[in-house]
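Lab manual, section 2.4: Encoding a predicted structure.

Procedure: take the sequence of the chain (224 residues), apply the prediction step described in section 2.3, and record the output as structure tokens. A sample record is shown.
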Amino acid sequence: MDVRIEELQEQGDATKKAVEDNRAKLDAKNFKQAKFDSFNSARTDLDAKDKAQTLSVEKAVSATSEKQNTKQEAISLIEKVGYTVKSATDDATEQKKFKIDESITGGYKGIIERCEYLDGLDEVSHTFLIDNGMTQEDIDNIKAMPEKLRAANSAQIKAKKDQKTATEIRDAAAKVYKSEINKIRNFVKANFPKDRAMLIAFEPVSKGGGRGGNDTPPPTPPAQ
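Recorded output:
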């Protein structure tokens, strides 16, 4: 969970408790239930949006991991081709046909290109690989790998985009909730300017659990 959101939720929890503990005094000043309902509704919305954002992060991490695993699977197949050819022949021309000593450039796109090249070799070349230790399943996997890589890349792009959107939506909900908290605090400041206990009860909670950031009560407001 984002630390900023967690801290905001803690502020909201403290504000809710302060309202419930001092409801009679608030009601005496015409504190509207609609204001409290709006506050609670904003929290419910934030919690739901925060949960969705957390899930989007998990999906993005999973998609990134899946892409990396797919890339590694493809690289392992390409390396297997290289080792198979080298174990079968020292002929430079034969090895060159399989691009044994050519490095792969361009990231995952380069891996796709190499798999497509190997898949596009003639049947004799594929038979040569099978005769020297590879399997038909290996050959089929090389053929399928470009599409698997493209799909994994697309899934990662979508997951990251969804995460960005979910974060923006969550942050917008947090802004609304913070506004609702401040409305209640301002109501208290407006209606209880000389009530130290009320002012302290609705002060922001510090990270250490105290009020006002340092547990020091605010000064008594000057006489009006």
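Check your result against the sample. Helices lie at 3-21, 23-28, 33-88, 92-97, 107-119, 123-131, 136-191, 196-201.
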